[in-house]
Amino acid sequence: MRFCLPRQIVWTAIAPRVGEVVDFAPLFESVGTTVVLQRSWLLALSRAGYLLRQGRGGRFQVLRHTGVLAPMRRKDGSLYDPNTAGPIELGALRVWVALLINKVLTQPEAAALCDLSVQRVAELLSAWQRVGAVRVSRVGTGNGLEYRIVRDQPICPIVTPHGVFDVYLNKFLEVANDG
């Protein structure tokens, strides 16, 4: 992960365009690079809920803009947004967005939609349930418990080894017991 000036310039250019569909090809060409070379960054932003892909090529709808500094893609696939709390696990965001879209999901449904293990989905949902971000809405038919989001916010609470951090409240909602 490193600072990338072309991405930073493009990030600044899209700031006033939240909600609009933007063709990133001319923006990247104006700073000496191409959409093809920046594809992994654009797709990471799309998976994390910053952009919504509009067909083929470099057209994306800008869904949100978190601040002055451009988010950076790490080698492990997570997205680091220096404007928020830091590292955002893309798998956790996929589960959160799937819940936002579908309103209610079981662990196996979320795992299948998000290409994660049922165990990882269970860990995330359990942590979010403990801090009141999701709740069990009812017992599903054959697939287990159904989960629903309580706090309708675009970024999920971040589950870390130190606890569960909420970027909107800027505090840990749960701190891991070090004992």
Radius of gyration: 17 Å
Largest sheet: 3 strands, antiparallel
- The number of helices is 6
Into which percentage range does the β-strand content fall? 15-25%
- Strand/helix succession: HEHHEEEEEHEHHEEEEE
Secondary structure layout plus pairing:
Elements: H1 5-14, E1 21-23, H2 24-30, H3 39-47, E2 51-53, E3 59-62, E4 72-73, E5 79-81, E6 86-88, H4 90-102, E7 105-106, H5 107-114, H6 118-130, E8 134-139, E9 145-149, E10 158-160, E11 163-166, E12 171-175
Antiparallel strand pairs: 1-3, 2-3, 4-5, 5-6, 7-9, 8-9, 10-11, 11-12
Helix pairs in contact: 4-5, 5-6
Describe this structure in words.
This protein has helices at about 5-15, 25-30, 40-45, 90-100, 105-115, 120-130, and strands spanning about 20-25, 50-55, 60, 70-75, 80, 85-90, 105, 135-140, 145-150, 160, 165, 170-175. By secondary structure, it is of the alpha+beta class. The strands form 4 sheets. The protein has a 3-stranded antiparallel β-sheet. Strands 4-5-6 form a 3-stranded antiparallel β-sheet. The protein has a 3-stranded antiparallel β-sheet with strand order 7-9-8. Strand 11 (about 165) and strand 12 (about 170-175) form a beta hairpin. The longest helix has 13 residues, at about 90-100. The chain is globular and about 55 Å long. The model has no long low-confidence stretch (mean pLDDT about 85).
Describe this protein with a few key phrases:
179 residues; alpha+beta; 3-stranded antiparallel beta sheet; 34% helix
Kindly summarize this structure in a few lines.
The chain has 179 residues and is α+β, with helices and mostly antiparallel strands. It is 34% helix and 24% strand.
